[in-house]
């Protein structure tokens, strides 16, 4: 399998053995860019804030949180817990001792788990995490975000980062003043964040009142609405975004992926609900058809039972007039009463066959009419 090893000057290097398509290629493209990654203190600050908020959005499900990203993962305990929460899987039992060796062993258990998910961490060692190395810790958390929040995104035929970008483009397409081309400067004026919310929950955003030249208001509006109504914690400060020439791509991607999961999760649930409704509707329709069949069959049988004795009545007529009346009635029967009943029987047979086909298509058992009401019983 293709693996990308990227060692950069003093940077954490990650190797991806792709479970998902595109993740290795994405890393290869980003190579040059990452050389300057954490040399920019503004980016480091943005990552620290976003990654901390992202970790806490998961850790709170286990009733805990971190305050300081470099410090709070050093003993490996919260790191193991974080991985359990986001993966829904159990990790090996952590060591509870306070010595350095226990901490290293716990961090290694976490790193082994990440590796088991197809991510090879090259030059991110447990010792650096235990020593509180900020660059290594942020690099490690980014690989976790990439693997668990971004890699499995799939939109149309694209996945991971490209899938997320395409999703943003599709969702913001109707908004003329939004043009999402990347995960940095396209988000600076705050309109893209507002458009994403407005597209899914129009009642939360007064989109027409937002002005392109007031980015701080726009960003704060989106972040506050997301926190209050969508359960997406505030992951960046508007000022940090506006005051950097190019906001940190990893921070923006992490923030945007939270919107994707909030909305696509709701959409998946809605799709599932729609599917169930469809199944129920089909079942209901089939039941109506069964009831209609039974009713029509009963009506026909009743008519036949009423008509046969009349037809079989051979009592001779006393007068010529009565004789003519009987002939007249019989002509009426042949011309007026019998044809619609023949038509009804044909319709009954058609309905019966349609119903059986529908039941077969939806994997339901065949329909058995009540005793004596088969199509063949109606003569």
Give me the secondary-structure topology.
Blueprint: E1 3-5, E2 13-17, H1 23-34, H2 41-59, H3 69-72, H4 77-87, H5 100-116, E3 119-122, H6 126-130, H7 134-150, E4 154-155, E5 158-159, H8 160-172, H9 191-200, H10 215-229, H11 238-242, H12 249-312, H13 320-361
Antiparallel strand pairs: 1-2, 2-3, 4-5
Helix pairs in contact: 2-7, 2-12, 4-5, 7-12, 8-12, 9-10, 12-13
Write a structural description.
The protein has 379 residues and is mainly alpha-helical. It folds into 3 domains: 41-151, Calponin-like domain (Actin-binding Protein, T-fimbrin, domain 1); 160-247, Calponin-like domain (Actin-binding Protein, T-fimbrin, domain 1, Orthogonal Bundle), CATH 1.10.418.10; 272-362, Methane Monooxygenase Hydroxylase, Chain G, domain 1 (Up-down Bundle), CATH 1.20.58. The protein contains 13 helices and 5 strands. The chain has helices spanning 23-34, 41-59, 69-72, 77-87, 100-116, 126-130, 134-150, 160-172, 191-200, 215-229, 238-242, 249-312, 320-361, and strands at 3-5, 13-17, 119-122, 154-155, 158-159. The strands form 2 sheets. Strands 1-2-3 form a 3-stranded antiparallel sheet. β4 (154-155) and β5 (158-159) form a beta hairpin. α2 (41-59) packs parallel to α12. The protein starts with a strand and ends in an 18-residue tail after the last helix. One of its GO terms (molecular function) is actin binding.
């Amino acid at each position: 399998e293709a693996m990308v090893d990227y060692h950069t000057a003093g940077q954490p290097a990650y190797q991806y053995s792709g479970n998902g398509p595109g993740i290795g290629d994405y890393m290869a493209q980003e190579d040059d860019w990452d050389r300057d990654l954490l040399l920019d203190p503004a980016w480091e600050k943005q990552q620290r804030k976003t990654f901390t908020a992202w970790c806490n959005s998961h850790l709170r499900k286990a009733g805990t949180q971190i305050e300081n990203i470099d410090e709070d993962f050093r003993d490996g305990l919260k790191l193991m817990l974080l991985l359990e929460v986001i993966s829904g899987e159990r990790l090996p039992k952590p060591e509870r001792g306070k010595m350095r060796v226990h901490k290293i062993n716990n961090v290694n258990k976490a790193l082994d788990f990440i590796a088991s998910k197809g991510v090879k961490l090259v030059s991110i060692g447990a010792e650096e995490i235990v020593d509180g190395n900020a660059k290594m810790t942020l690099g490690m958390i980014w690989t976790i975000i990439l693997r668990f929040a971004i890699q499995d995104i799939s939109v149309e035929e694209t996945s991971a980062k490209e899938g997320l970008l395409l999703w943003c483009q599709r969702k913001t397409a109707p908004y003329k003043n939004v043009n999402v081309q990347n995960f940095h400067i396209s988000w600076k004026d705050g309109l893209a964040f507002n458009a994403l919310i407005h597209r899914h929950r129009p009642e939360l955003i007064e989109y027409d009142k937002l002005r392109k030249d007031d980015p701080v208001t726009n960003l704060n509006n989106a972040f506050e609405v997301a926190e209050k109504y969508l359960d997406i914690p505030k992951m960046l400060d508007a000022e940090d975004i506006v005051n950097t020439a190019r906001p940190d791509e990893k921070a923006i991607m992490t923030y945007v992926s939270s919107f994707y999961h909030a909305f696509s999760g709701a959409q998946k649930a809605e799709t599932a609900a729609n599917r169930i409704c469809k199944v129920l509707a089909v079942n209901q329709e089939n039941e109506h058809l069964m009831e209609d069949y039974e009713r029509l069959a009963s009506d026909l049988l009743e008519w036949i039972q009423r008509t046969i004795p009349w037809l079989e009545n051979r009592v001779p007529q006393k007068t010529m007039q009565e004789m003519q009346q009987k002939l007249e009635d019989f002509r009426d029967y042949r011309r007026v009463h019998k044809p619609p009943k023949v038509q009804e029987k044909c319709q009954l047979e058609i309905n019966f066959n349609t119903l059986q086909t529908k039941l077969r298509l939806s994997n339901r058992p065949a329909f058995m009419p009540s005793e004596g009401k088969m199509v063949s019983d109606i003569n």
